[in-house]
Amino acid sequence: MRLPSSPINYRHCCNKLLSLLNAPTPTKPMWAQPETDPASAARQWRRKVVVIMGPTGCGKSRLSIDLATRFFPSEIINSDKMQVYSGLDITTNKIPMRDRLGIPHHLLGQVDPSCHRELSPSEFRSAADSKISDIVSRRKIPLVVGGSNSFIYAFAANRFDPESDVFRESKPDPICPELRYDCCFLWVDVSIPVLNQYLDKRVDDMLDSGMFNELEDYFANSDSLRESDSVTRTGLRKAIGVPEFEPYFRTFGRRTTDASPEEDPVRRGLYDEAVRAIKDNTCQLAERQVGKILRLRNSGWDLRRLDATEAFTATMVVRGSDSAGGAPSDVWERQVVEPSVKIVKRFLEEE
After folding, report:
1. Which residues contact 37 (CB under 8 A, 6 or more apart)?
2. Residue 133 C-beta-side C-alpha neighbours within 13 Å
3. Closest of 190, 120, 183 to residue 154, by C-alpha
4. Which residues cross the membrane (predicted)?
5. Which is the most buried residue in 137, 218, 267, 280, by most CB within 10 A?
6. Nearest Cα to 198, choosing from 291, 93, 82?
């Protein structure tokens, strides 16, 4: 240890040390304390991460915005492997800018899909680490939000082997039960029959919002139709909606402005077939995601389940009627948001 160079400095150091030792103990939890030193903040917060997981369409983004805008100073790290790519915002269900309400979103639409490569779980692990360090240095809570459980596992597991597959259907590799971050896992769950009904309607809503035109532009400006080998399909070309509509655009060309699907029965047949495939594949994806979540929970991960079934049921009832009441939002608040706030508050107050 280097000694102070003068009596004045030594006296100053002693007085500073005594003032620190005699300072009153803070009554607020650590996450609520003001902090001016980013490095110190990072040391204190580096292991506190909130992870919001669940199947596609279950409301993960909605919950993250609810928490970040109303309860906890947060920034969001996307963990959806299709949403990391730029483009196809409707098809990949990226949260629109207007709905982000000013909350910073990281790793969302930031990978150039023209490179035609996968963002690997290992790369996500490294990128998420960098974003977490940056977020906690600003005294914010990192919210890792997304449905790609392979990304979540790679990010959180203490020991991660890029060559192993812990979600393989037959003879999966063992899951590492130890975590390298202090994680609070919020699992938004919805009864599969209710979720499937909602997902079917969501596909219709996406098409009404311009998904078909978005895909038309995508095929017009990419080399996807030149790639006939589906085995080599990577990156954004694997997003649900792209392979399903590929036969349509392969048959009728990249631009279909000369006739709409409604005006030609052949076009209509291929269009309807693509829509049915999107709905089926979306529901199958949701079931696979739930299976992976259950595997993590059964392997010792402490996942806090939030049952959003009642809220989704209320949403479907309102959509099927002429009423426009606020019942779905009230149920969502009671069944999902309020329990989440209690869970996260307790988590952040723990040493």
Report:
1. none
2. 7
3. 120
4. none
5. 218
6. 93
DSSP line for 119-145: --HHHHHHHHHHHHHHHHTTT-EEEEE
User: Phi/psi at 140 (nearest 5 deg)?
Assistant: -110, 160
H helical segments located in 166-264: 192-208, 211-220, 242-252
CA-closest candidate to residue 204, choices 145, 282, 130: 282
Q: What are phi and psi of 186, to 5 degrees?
A: -105, 115
Q: How far apart are CA 262 and CA 275, in angstroms?
A: 14
Report the pLDDT value the prediction gives residue 264, as an integer from 0 to 100. 80
Confidence class for position 139, pLDDT limits 50, 70, 90: very high
pLDDT digits (tens, 9 = 90+) for 213-230: 999 999 988 766 555 545
Beta strands in 40-181 (DSSP E): 48-53, 74-78, 105-106, 141-145
Single-letter code of the amino acid located at 258: D
Dihedral sign computed on CA atoms, order 348, 187, 282, 208: negative
Q: Is residue 75 within 8 Å of 135, Cβ to Cβ?
A: yes
76 in helix, strand or coil? strand
Residue 66's nearest CA partner among 192, 177, 186, 157 is: 186
Is residue 84 within 8 A of residue 111, CB to CB? The reply is yes
- In whole angstroms, give the CA distance from residue 246 to residue 244: 6
Q: Cα separation of 147 and 80, whole Å?
A: 5
Query: What domains sit in the chain, N to C, each tagged with a CATH number?
Result: 41-198+279-349 (3.40.50.300)
Strand duo 141-145 + 105-106: pairing = unpaired
Question: How many residues make up the chain in this entry?
Answer: 351
Q: What is the DSSP letter of 321?
A: S
Q: What global pTM score does this model have?
A: 0.82
- Could you give the CA distance from residue 142 to residue 72 in angstroms, rounded to a whole number? 10
